[in-house]
Each structure stands twice: as C-alpha cells, then as structure tokens.
Amino acid sequence: MKIDYLQALKRAHEARGAWILHGQEPLLEQNLLDTFRKSWNVQEVERQRFDISSVSDWKNVFNALNSLSLFSQHLAIEVHGNIKPDANALKLLKNYIQHNEHNLLMIIMPKQDSSSLKSAFFQVVEANGVVVALTANYPQDRQRILTVEADKLGIQLEQDAWLWLEQHHEHNLLAAKNSLMRVHDTFPDNPIIKIEHLYECLQDQSRYTTFDLSDALIAGNLVQATKIFQYLIASGEPNSLILWTLSKEMRLLMQLYEQPQNALQLGIWKTKISNYQQALRRLHPQHFLTWPQLLLRIDAAIKGMSQENAEHLILQCVAEMCGKTLFPV
Which parts of the sequence belong to the DNA polymerase III delta N-terminal domain (predicted)? Predict the structure, then answer.
C-alpha cells in the first residue's frame, strides 16, 4: 500500500508489519518519526535502531525482530540506510511479514529513483505493508503540510501570505516551518497572519541564503544580488555552493531560451515562470555564449587551478546575469 505523509501521520498509532519511508524532505521525516516515537512510548513499545552499512547488517535486524526482551510485548525497529536486502534477507523479510504481525519494521531511506521503487524489496513491502513517499511536489501539497504546522502554532495565513511564504522558501519545507515559528513569536497576538507580517518579519532579516541570491539574479537586481553575495562570503558560504547556484540559474535561462514552452518540465515553478521570461527579455542571447567559459574559469579558480580571484569572477558572473558588465575588456 502506498500512502502520503498526512495519511501516515493519522495511522502512526496503529502501525505494524513493515513500513518504508523514503524521500528528501527532512521536515516530513522528522515529524513522522517524532509522531511514531511518541506513539511507541504511550503504548510501551520497545524501540531499537539499526544503521545499515552493509547487506549483512540485515541479518541483525531480523534477529532482533524475532527476540523480544522480557519487559516488552511489542517491538519497533528503526532501520536507517540506503542498502536494500539481498535475496537471503528478502526471504527473512517475507517470513517476518507472514508470521510477526505485532511488531513494526520501520525502514527510513533517502529519495529513491524509479528503478529502485520497482525492485523486489519495494514490491514486497508495498504488497504486504506500507510505503510512504516523503515528498511534496506541488504547491497545494506543501500548503496542506504547512497548514498542519500553522495549526499547531494556533495561527492562520491569508492566501496571499501562503503564496509569499512559498515563493520565499521554494521547496524548503523545514525553513518554511521555522519561518512560521518566527512570525508567530514576533506577532504573538495576531492569530491571522497577513503578507505584511511575513514581509516585516522575514524580508528584512539580515540572514540570506543562496535561494535569495537566485531570486535577486532572476529579478536583475544587481544591488541586492551583490549585497547577498557579500553576505554569503562573509558568513562562510563555500564558493562552490555559490557557483552551483549561478550555474543552475544560467542553465535554466539558456534552456528556457531554447525551449520557451517547457518551463514546468525544466523545473521552474509556475509562480516564477514570468520572472524567468522577464529575465530572458532583459538579457541578450549572445551573452549566453560566454557563460559556460566564465563558469569554467570560476571553477578553476575555486580549485586553485588558476591565478584568478574566484570571488571577483563570481561577482562578474552575478553582474552579467543582471544584464551588466564588470571589468570590460
């Protein structure tokens, strides 16, 4: 059986058999595990954890599932790792599912590709247990999840405030939750949060991320982009991560120029498509020809393979994305 995150929250107290949680959303994983652990404590379920570093570790997992302590009637085993059981361990898994319905095997894995999801391991658990994808691919899914977090804090957001929060944090649900907590602490007497509250609380904060740099670059705001870049450098952000951000945005712009009808397929948010289209109108396609070489120069400078100053080159790259030119030849 496949269920989503919110369905899994509702079923935590009755979970038995075999479950797989897989994905790359730390907020969803953290919340689910907290919910399960609280339920186990209430029900006095013994909990053990195993970290899988080799296939042979699975044998220890199934040995533990078949050997309760004298003080427990039920057992919950948490397994963390990205190594699936081999054929022998898969037999042990099938035997456990068929004969041990009172315990819980909870397997926590990172995001899986399509071929992995079709493997015998996933097929066995899906057919006889529960598979939960820790994902939130659409804005409505993210808003549903964050609405639960807002309810915990006793606040409600107006719809335009939700849209602003979504755009401010992109796919980072954990950062969005932290922002909900911050705005609640800042305005404790306001159960209804408006976009003005979020803007006052979050937009003017002195901390920036590479997401903020991306927004400034696409908007063509050279002053803001430079300010954010200088902050990132001062706060110890690796040049390689800043380069990754620049490369990603440059690549998206070049791909969108070649495929103007495929913005969603390229991974551009629906709410941001117009921003990228405006950036293309601001930039001259001839500039795209120089971008790959500039990125290579930055990479070489970061790795110490050239005498050029990486930060100066990055600033040049920032300016070019904003439609300006530094250090003209």
Answer: 20-131
- Catalogue all structural domains in the chain, each as residue range(s) with its CATH number: 2-134 (3.40.50.300), 139-203 (1.10.8.60), 210-321 (1.20.272)
Please report the pLDDT score of residue 329 as a whole number. 45
CB 314 within 8 A of CB 242: yes
Q: For residue 268, what are its two tokens?
A: 């551009």
pTM as predicted: 0.59
Question: In this structure, what DSSP letter does residue 134 have?
Answer: E
Residue with tokens 């390689």: 240
Q: State CA 179 to chain mean position distance.
A: 16
With contact defined as beta carbons under 8 Å apart, do 209 and 245 qualify? no
Note the pLDDT tens digit of each residue in 263-308: 888 888 888 899 999 999 999 888 899 999 999 999 999 988 989 9
pLDDT-based confidence at 50, cuts 50/70/90? very high
Q: Give the up-direction half-sphere exposure of residue 141: CA atoms within 13 A in the CB hemisphere.
A: 16
> What contacts 24+ positions apart, CB below 8 Å, involve 202-207?
202/168, 203/168, 206/231, 207/231, 207/235
301 in Cβ contact with 309 (< 8 Å) = yes
